[in-house]
Amino acid sequence: MAMLEHPILLAMLIPLVGGLLILITGNRPNLREAVTLVTATTLFWNVFGIYQAWQAGTALELSLFDTVTGIPIAFKVEPLGMLFALIASFLWIVTSLYAIGYMRGHHEKNQTRFYFFFAVAIASVMGLTFSGNLLTLFIFYEVLTLSTFPLVTHAGTDAARKGGRTYLGILLGTSIAFFLLALIATWAISGTLDFTAGGILPEGIPAPLVALLYGLFLFGVGKAALMPFHRWLPAAMVAPTPVSALLHAVAVVKAGVFSVLKITVYIFGIESLQSGQASQWMLYVAGATVLLASLIAMTKDNLKARLAYSTVSQLAYIVMGAALAHQLGIIGGAMHIATHAFGKITLFFAAGAIMVASHKTEISQMRGLGRAMPFTFGAMLIGCLSIIGLPPMGGTWSKWYLVMATVDTEQWIMLGILLVSSLLNIAYLLPIPVRAFYGGTTSSNPSTGIKEAPVFCLIAMGISASGCLLLFFYPQPLYELVSALFPG
Amino acid sequence: MSAPSTAITLANLATHYPALQIVLPLVTAPLVVLLRGTRLVWLIAFAVTLACLGIAVDLYAQVLQQGEISYAMGGWAPPVGIEYRVDRFNGLMLILICAIAAVVLPFARTSVEKEVADNRLSLFWAAWLLCFTGLLGIVITGDAFNVFVFLEVSSLSTYALIACARDRRALTSAFQYLIMGTIGATFILIGIGLLYMLTGTLNMADLAERLPAVTQARTLNAAFGFIVVGCSLKLALFPLHLWMPNAYAFAPSAVTAFIAATATKVSIYVMLRFFYTVFGAEFSFGSMPLGEVLMTLSIIAMFSGSLVAIYERNVKRMLAYSSVAQIGYITLGISLATTSGLAAGMLHLINHAMIKAGLFMAMGAVVYRLGSCRLDQLSGLGKQMPWTMAAFVAGGLSLIGVPLTTGFVSKWHLASAGFGAGLPLVPVAILASSLLAVIYVWKVIETAYLRAPLENATPVKEAPISLLIPMWIMVAANFGFGIQGTVIWQAVQQAAVQLTGGV
User: Fold this and answer.
1) Are B365 and B252 contained in the same domain?
2) Is the pLDDT confidence value at B11 over 80?
């Protein structure tokens, strides 16, 4: 079976095999966690191998059988997917470390099921990142939704059931009603769904139709959490924190904006979008989401809820980058996938660590907690700065390119939105670590007896926070990877 | 046209396959009543079903190689004698019926022991075989009156099968079905009678030749109307579907799985046969406003069936209403009056048979253990019957139309056909109504997995392996043909081309 050794196929098989091994070793937690870590490391090593081969100029492609006549399940390595695969597979290692500390510290039940579905979710993310046509992407997009449902409803409580309903209802609903519709319409119009540089839509399609199609795609990709289809993300916060961290700050939500970028670049083509102004109306939707989500985030006292709305807002940055239909916007959006991933995962790690160590979930209870948990809140500060986009954090670069794109395309309103939103970010993120360090503890909130989080959690936070710093000082590989999208 | 030798020898056995397809189960039915002993009876029924499946596959292979098969029953050449005719479409239908029967029979053996009184068992198997015979007969025959005869054979035995259940409500449901089914069959008979009056022939091919010359348009229109309404009743097209939910809900589970996957599908076959082979597409869709009427009713069926399913508390009834909606998808494809629409309808006909057979078997296993399939009683069943509920989830995903399942392939081709026919609202309706399927399927999944068992409920064990294996064969088929989605599609595409142009 020579084909099974194809690295792209391996990227999906490794987590799946790992998942099965997790089920088999379920009775022995230490062995099971070792399997998770080994699987995650093997996967990253494999993805990194793909990266090196791709850098060396090897064209990696794979076409399997047709599932619908004329459209094979096909995979192809290209810059956006490469970037996303690297981030997701690397952060899986970090999250696995973190999950060990968290799940044990929090005495979660059904941990085997948890790790199993986690592995399946990662496998579908890998399939999604390397997909070579829109149908393949759609298939893995749906598998990702379904495989994360048991993770979201992990607790099995009434709240989990309610959250799960919103999660599945919105994600599956938008994907069937809008995404699939747009997909079949595109197939009917252009007769192909291959990701092709410059887009696949034939010329001469009326601009309103293109605009409608673009809107269907962007709303249909519910994982991108554009308002008004964003409610699933706060709802998904009932999941254990490692799920919120990797899936709902990185893998699942980024799968959404990744799809948006891919559709923009390879299905519509930025030149034709730009000339037809077809993405203009979605630009306003994205801009509104950026602002409104930030405003809602300010009202949330629950830390995870605030982070969720912050994610909604930050995802809309990336959608805005796509809808600007400009090279710099795409580059900024793609870089934001990376920088936001490291920043937000750090924040979620910190939120989970606080919950495990002190059982506190509300921001107002965290005054003065920084002195008991200096490392956790230190990492959180780094994460906040990166999300806001202040030097010396990686978030600076992606926001810089997005701003440049609004200037180049003369979208002054969008420029204004980006600037205002950065101020809002400061207002709702920065006070959390600052008050933890400098605010006095209130008598109703004694922080005595609270110790730092489990060591596995601290290691994970250390790695992701360093990533934020590293991305500021060494953005070159990231930039080169993304700008390979636009040769010349 | 020379008739084949009437004497059946081992050497010319294969040429008599069309007759054996029907005769074999037909003669086994009385044999079963005479034999009584339950175990042997089942074995014979199963052996006959497998033989029929083999014959069906061989017939289809013959069609693929040599084109249409025409067989003169008893050596009387058509149009005087009864002709059996196999083409690509009914070749597939024969395989479908036999395959479903072959998978459901082992399931039935176990489940029926609980749901049917012991002293009725041999009668039950006889009725089953007669039903099977009738369905095969409707499909294989090339004679319009013979269609009616076999329709009655299958319908009467189905009423008996439903009434076999221990649940007393099955009797009223069977009676309800009997009344509605008889009206439907009578309408078809009147239609066929009018056609005979006009042309003096009952052979379908002959009818097709003579009908264009018919000048009394009004009688012809009446015949068409009667046949359409009759078939619509039998296939449970909205608003003529009211017999179905109770019949499905109270019949023994195995019967539900079998007839839900085959009986309504065969009625759709009859309708298509009349539309395309007898009346001709030109007349059916051109002179008659069939496309418009069928499309409107289909879309109402898709939404109303799914909406009712959402509020249904009995899962078997829920699935029955879902069938109303799914049949709407099939007839919607047909109503587009294009070859790709027809092919998409046929595709969903086959796929939906696989989906519903799997789902009804899963519910059958639940009934086997719980004695009921009320939604609230399913609480916590995900832990107690993990394999059964996993099969339901898998089948449910296919019903919703998630990628990598047959349901997805169906929806894809139906929606594409809608765009192809220049009706962009058709795909919108198809996908919007799929959302309703998400709701009712997920209600069951949520209850089974995320609700604690009822306090007074006694814990149950997983269903026996003899129920699980058939169920999972159907689930595997759903995913196998969903992943390799081109296999059935190419077959139905060729069938559609033959049906629209080849005749």
Assistant:
1) no
2) no
Residue contact B485–A177, C-beta within 8 A: no
Do B173 and B298 share a domain, yes or no? no
Residues B122 and B262 in one domain: yes
Average pLDDT on A122-150 reads 92
**pLDDT reported for residue A153:** 87
pLDDT digits over A350-362, tens only? 888 888 888 888 8
Residues B91 and B5 both lie in one domain: yes
* Residue B470 placed within a domain: yes
Closest CA to A132 of A89, A72, A66: A72
Phi, psi (5° rounding) for residue B85? -135, 130
**DSSP letter for each residue of A189-215:** HHS--B--TT-SPPTT--HHHHHHHHH
- A-chain residue closest to B405, CA distance: A67
Using a CB-CB cut-off of 8 Å, the residues of chain A touching B435 are: 173, 176-177
Q: For residue A164, which residues of chain B lie inside 8 Å, CB to CB? A: 446, 450
Q: Which residue is closest to A187 within chain B, CA to CA?
A: B416
How far apart are the C-alpha atoms of A347 and A304, rounded to whole Å?
A: 9
- Which residues of chain B have a Cβ shorter than 8 Å from any chain A Cβ? 397, 400-404, 409, 411-413, 415-416, 419-420, 424, 427-428, 431-432, 434-435, 438-439, 442, 446, 449-451, 482-486, 489-490
Band (A449; pLDDT cuts 50, 70, 90) = low
Which residue range is the domain that position B490 belongs to?
A: 290-503
Together in a domain, B248 and B375:
no
- How far is the C-alpha of B25 from the C-alpha of B47, rounded, in Å? 10
What pLDDT, on a 0 to 100 scale, did the predictor assign at position A94? 87
Give tens-digit pLDDT for B136-184: 999 999 899 999 999 999 999 999 999 888 888 888 888 989 999 999 9
Predicted local confidence at residue B2, as pLDDT: 44
CA B105-B107-B113 angle, to 5 degrees, is 100
In a domain, B346, yes or no: yes
Q: DSSP states of B228-244 as a string?
A: HHHHHHHHT-TTS-TTH
pLDDT at B1: 41
Q: What local confidence, expressed as pLDDT, does residue B67 receive?
A: 86
For residues A395 and A339, give the distance between their C-alpha atoms in angstroms, rounded to a whole number.
Answer: 5
Which long-range CB contacts under 8 A does A277-280 form with residues at least 24 apart? A277/A207, A277/A211, A278/A207, A278/A210, A278/A211, A278/A214, A279/A211, A279/A214, A279/A322, A279/A323, A279/A324, A279/A325, A280/A211, A280/A323
Interface with A, mutate which of B431, B451, B487 (most A CBs under 10 A): B431
Q: Number of Cβ pairs closer than 8 Å across A and B?
A: 81
B450–A160: do the CB atoms touch at under 8 Å?
yes
Backbone angles phi, psi at B424, to 5 degrees: -65, -15
